[in-house]
């Protein structure tokens, strides 16, 4: 594991924008501290390319705000006492005065002083990185205190896949300058990738041929070794062959003996200190400049860490406490910030390597850290001649696994088109914006798709299965085969303020579809299966009461099936049973259907019919069938004729309390509604 960590740590340090030795420190301290706090036997903490690039962006932002020095001229007014030489008790002569002041008659002295512009006190890149890991650790500890590990569910697999692939694009363009031997200007902020590509095109004529040659050889070596040679060698060795380390050794040897750095201007890593770094406090004055960056890095680190932990759980068949892992990451970040390190998270490759060589506890990381410490103290100077282009090539080649995630789109498109859109938008937002902003917007888009899907709930009919005698979902084209006049309706979505109107519309559509396909003149009875509601809010409960009242006024028997105890408690805690007859609420669908089939609807009086018709005709959301709406004018006309025959009967008129003119007016209004509904 130490052998694998040496080239990887140095490469990640170059992405972060700090000296190479700090990449080795990052591979030592967090991994060592995780031994005491983590619950996973196989997770190995270390740098991650995407996190390193996000840290580099925060460092660049702070460095741009760093104060700079300049020379300023000031004038000092001297007195006669100041011009007397107190040791010799003599007055300075005019000649001496002129030499000091430049003017015999003036007591003003011109003084040049060093001044600083407004901004951050001069700081090193590693100081910004340690402050970021400190603040990220504090955020992760608070996430553990408030049990916010469920927030990682927002980082769906599609969001993280698109984000990681988009991050791989950022990493590629961050390292392409080193591969080609081109010095590109610093860029940061949303949309900086566009300017980086523009800078690359403008500087293509400055490509350094020796550097490109070394990069090409390194890339071919890694492709041949890892893609063709490694599968063959895996049968002969019990552990993976470290091709990266072999490439590093070859590169150092060739550069040193051929003097490539001096003769061909090949950029090398340079001197690596061999002393142990003393602990120091982070730069707390930088927190106000990096707060948002640290929050994005903290959440991203948690998401990646939990994702790796879930993979480890599945592969090695044991449980990892995700809540404790938040504390572990937080404490590791806070304590590691006293040493020169940059943000870390779990790496699946490191975890797999540890298991492949027989590591089954965190003591593997302990001995790996000790081995890395010996590398720094003893072998560090040998890394001086390592070409930077080899590290950049290794980083770009490592993105190959991320780019392979494009294959997920092929599997998502045929069935999961919403997940396909989330994956693609996460990738595009990450590429087009900066890493942190892209991830947050991708999460927002994923949440938005969830909200939109709740606005388009799925509804269906239930019918009795002849084989099992249970009720099952029935396709709408099979309704003609269903016997009886009981319509069982179910909507699979929360009944809340965002879906209440949709529920009413779907219920209306369902009754129309049932009436048309059944081709029966009998008035159907409606059973609403409430098991499809995960939860119901105040407006949803009001909608259920309103639907029951409207259907009852229209002469339609309505029943509810409620099995969830939470919804039953909600009914009893509110005025639901003051509107809905409690005998119309059942715990099983079969009981509701049995009662509905046995119940015979009583004929409605003229007054009740008119009242129901008028209440429904004046409602925006009508629950009448299309056939009933079309026949409504004739129905009202027949009622009007009956009332004309009873015009001279005072008792009948008192019972109906509706005049003939009102009925005819209702008839004309109903006819207009009929034509409008027919056109719709």
TrEMBL record:
InterPro entries: S04_transporter_CS, SLC26A/SulP_dom, SLC26A/SulP_fam, STAS_dom, STAS_dom_sf. GO terms for molecular function: secondary active sulfate transmembrane transporter activity. SUPFAM superfamilies: SpoIIaa-like (SSF52091). Pfam families: STAS, Sulfate_transp. Residues 646-680 are annotated as: Disordered. CDD domains: STAS_SulP_like_sulfate_transporter (cd07042). Residues 654-680 have a biased composition (Low complexity). The chain crosses the membrane at residues 20-37, 126-148, 160-184, 204-224, 286-306, 326-349, 355-378, 422-448. GO terms for cellular component: membrane. Keywords: Membrane, Transmembrane, Transmembrane helix. The keyword Thylakoid does not apply. It is found in: Membrane. The keyword Transferase does not apply. It is a multi-pass membrane protein. Residues 485-596 form the STAS domain. This is STAS domain-containing protein. It comes from Caenorhabditis japonica.
